[in-house]
Design a protein that fits this description.
This protein is α+β, with helices and mostly antiparallel strands. It contains 22 helices and eight strands. The strands form three sheets. The protein has a four-stranded mixed beta sheet with strand order 6-5-7-8. Strand 7 and strand 8 form a beta hairpin. The N and C termini lie far apart (44 Å). The mean pLDDT is 95.
Length: 462
């Protein structure tokens, strides 16, 4: 465990720990988890690259960039590190299919992996350092988020973009060889570049998709500025005008600053990052499990009279309201933050995979009719954080009532075989179709000094 000077700011403590951490000290389970998370990000980014929002992000990144040594997953063209990181981070987020820390709902590896892959190509950095930087960046994100879990969302901010920029700065700074003082400056600079709004949850627009990509680009920019001697505030998180005082609007909320630095190196908050089994918000995942069970038990769209979702009160403003809009979402992103449509599509097809929420599905009259039958009531006994509860009751046309309850949370980690099944699904219709094993081999080889070039080769289908 790292012993920290209480006189240090949070950023100074995290920077000292990050700068001094050796790859050999990373616990074996976290090394494996980091490999899993990286492989997952690659898969979901490639799946998004075959869809409009991912294609637009990649095209925009190339248009804003210039020829360079870094690649966008699935594409042949080299570009600048910042452009590649922006595209890959945005693509990894585009299907809401990546991972998140279950207490804070912050998506971590979409940002840290995009940052690390770009820096590794740009600077020719060896595999073990790439994995370690991702692991350290994820831990920094989780710890900063744990100071005020849920408070960013309540204030209308998207913490993935905001907190993610700090994680990206630590990743980029570590890979650029910054010392602790340099990392402090990088994080301080990142604080003025970080951004993210949740307003697109209301109308289904794509804006939020770019948050992890922008965080990656911001982190790289901040680290390069710090490396050249630019300065940033050491108290960027807890200072009078810092992140938490400026972004947490509930003045009665007690910020738990101790969680950001307590037992660094001994307690790993990032162990609670979970890879998503379905392309939807984490709070909706147990409801998808319920819908799959009910479909398997005979609940079919043509037989369903009524669907009742028992939901925690705190999730309903996000995924259930306004009810009319959530039952007829306008875009695929709107679908991903709609509990009624997500439950309806799962019941209708008996699956929810990377291909979900297509324009064809959103226009399907029978599916839309089923979504109109999905209502919600408040479940007063639902857990508040970390372990999300799904509870669905279905009434069939003959009066039969079916019920299912499922939970999903911090202990629900994906097995290797489940991840590979997800990867195969994500790669369908992409340049990397049939390359799942090659991608896994390329990621696994990083721990033994492998080059990230093998990842981009397989991702491009070569």
């Amino acid at each position: 465990m790292t012993t920290l000077d209480p006189a240090r700011t949070i950023t100074q403590s995290l920077a000292a720990w990050c700068a001094g951490f050796a790859a050999a000290d990373l616990p074996a389970d976290l090394r494996h988890a980091t490999e899993q998370r990286l492989l997952n990000v690659i898969g979901v980014a490639l799946a998004a690259g075959a869809r409009p929002q991912g294609q637009v992000a990649a095209e925009a990144a190339l248009a804003m960039g210039a020829p360079g040594p870094c690649h966008i997953l699935g594409g042949p063209d080299g570009t600048l590190a910042t452009s590649a990181a922006f595209a890959n981070g945005s693509m990894a987020s585009a299907l809401a299919f990546d991972d998140s820390q279950t207490e804070t709902l912050i998506h971590c590896t979409c940002t840290t992996a995009a940052t690390a892959l770009a820096l590794a190509e740009w600077r020719g950095i060896a595999g073990p350092e790439v994995l370690l930087a991702i692991a350290l960046g994820n831990e920094a994100i989780c710890r900063i988020g744990a100071v005020a879990p849920g408070q960013f969302h309540r204030s209308g901010f998207h913490p993935t973009g905001i907190v993610g920029a700090f994680g990206a700065a630590f990743v980029a700074g570590r890979l650029l060889g910054l010392d602790a003082a340099g990392l402090v400056h990088a994080a301080g600079i990142a604080g003025t570049l970080a951004s993210g709004s949740n307003e697109c949850w209301r109308d289904g627009s794509w804006a939020q998709i770019v948050d992890p990509g922008w965080a990656s680009q911001a982190g790289i920019t901040a680290a390069v500025l710090a490396a050249k001697g630019f300065s940033g505030p050491a108290a960027v998180l807890e200072g009078s005008f810092g992140l938490f005082p400026s972004h947490v609007q509930d003045r009665d909320y007690r910020l738990d600053y101790a969680r950001a630095t307590a037992a660094l190196g001994e307690v790993w908050e990032s162990r609670n990052i979970a890879i998503k089994p379905y392309p939807t918000g984490h709070v909706s995942i147990p409801f998808v499990d319920c819908a799959l069970e009910l479909h398997a038990r005979g609940a079919r769209a043509e037989r369903i009279r009524r669907v009742t979702c028992h939901a925690a009160q705190w999730i309903t403003p996000v995924v259930c309201e306004p009810a009319a809009e959530k039952k007829r979402p306008s875009t695929d992103w709107h679908c991903r933050v709609s509990l009624p449509f997500t439950v309806a599509e799962t019941l209708f097809f008996g699956r929810l995979e990377a291909s979900a929420y297509s324009a064809e599905n959103r226009a399907n009259p029978a599916l839309l009719a089923l979504a109109q039958k999905v209502e919600y009531v408040i479940d007063p006994d639902a857990p508040r954080d970390e372990r999300y509860k799904g509870w669905i009751e279905v009434e069939l046309d003959d009066g039969t009532r079916l019920e299912s309850i499922h939970f999903h949370g911090r202990d629900d980690h994906m097995r290797d075989d489940q991840l590979m099944a997800k990867l195969h699904s994500c790669l369908r219709g992409t340049p990397a179709e049939g390359k799942a094993e090659a991608l896994r081999s390329a990621v696994t080889a990083l721990a033994q000094g492998g080059e990230v070039a093998a990842i981009f080769t397989a991702a491009a289908g070569r």
